[in-house]
Specification:
By secondary structure, this protein is an alpha/beta fold. Helices cover about 30% and strands about 25% of the residues. The structure holds 5-beta-D-ribofuranosylpicolinamide adenine-dinucleotide and zinc ion (ZN).
Amino acid sequence: MPKAAVANAVGSPLEIVDIDVADPKAGEIRIQMGASGVCHSDLSVVNGVLPIALPAILGHEGAGTITQLGEGVDNLSIGDHVVVSWVPQCGACYYCEHDQGELCEAGSMASMSGGLLDMTSRASRDGVPISVMAASGTFAEEAVIPAIGAVKIDPSIPLTAGALIGCGVLTGFGAAVNTASIRKGDTVAVIGCGGVGLNVIQGAKHAGAERIIAVDMVDGKLQTAQKFGATDLVNPSTDGDAVAKVMELSGGRGADVAFEVIGLGATIEQALQMTRRGGQAVIVGVPSFDTMLTINPAMDLLVSEKQIRGCWYGGSNVHRDVPMLAGLYQSGELMLDELMSAQISLDQVNEALDNMGSGEIARSVIVY
Ligand code: PAD
Ligand code: ZN
């Protein structure tokens, strides 16, 4: 029986249990999970910040090998290595056709439902169904997922690297390249330099940003940020107010684009304050659903012509962007191995969630 890490209740550690995984239905595939990253969004489910139906198998940043095909799946084969997309993307709905695959109609419904495209899960324990996080549930040795939520990668790419692409890299790199369309010479600020923020930094560097100001409370995170392309480092706990620092570093004008990659109201407001007139503040971090902001629409938006916008899954078309990112990794332009600060077993997932706040951990990756 495959093992999985299950959240039973908000605030409780994940329980490692044996599960049953039913056969894939039409349009679904079974995968043997190879690796799964541990993302802050997993911790947010445990904390109750991100509400999903419990009990649930967490994990949404995974890659694995196809072991079974449901009826009608003809674009994938048994043995293929695939990255799991936590928003399955159909390619045919209004959003997919308007280059907003991250908002795919069927995929978004599935992703929020705790199940697959028909909103039911294939996983169960002693006959009782268990939800899966984001149509994936990658904290499991085996999973059945929608075929449109799998993107084939070259088998020479380690599944650990493939897993990281599945959430942190698509989201962070995509926030810089797709959502903000960073231009050559831009000045960028990134508040929060964890697994996702580091990828905003490497995406900004790739897009040609000249100045990349990393903001984090942990010096270890800032040192890693520098390796990923940050040109200036700000630790508000020792260097003072982050907004003042970014204004100073940008000649008093502010950043062309400021990203919030933590998920706190206060730092989202800071991102808007440190954005230049006419620039963009991009929300990547997921705040609790009751967070409200104080924005002065006349000054903060109208007269200053600033934009504030959300970024879901890096504005990614996964069927286009996963192969692109895998190619950048193969050509040495995308740092993925460096993101993986610890390889762990499934049993160590609670420790990885606990360690998320420490300076050393960029991403812990479960290897199956
Ligand atoms: P992480 O825990 O690895 O990184 C968060 C970073 O923020 C850490 O380095 C902290 O030290 C730092 N930090 C915390 N508080 C502060 C503060 N007050 N000031 C400065 N720095 C601070 O998380 P992650 O990188 O895995 O995820 C970051 C967020 O992105 C989180 O909210 C997650 O849920 C969200 C996310 N969003 C999407 C999306 O589609 N928008 C996708 C994936 C993850
Ligand atoms: Zn994630």
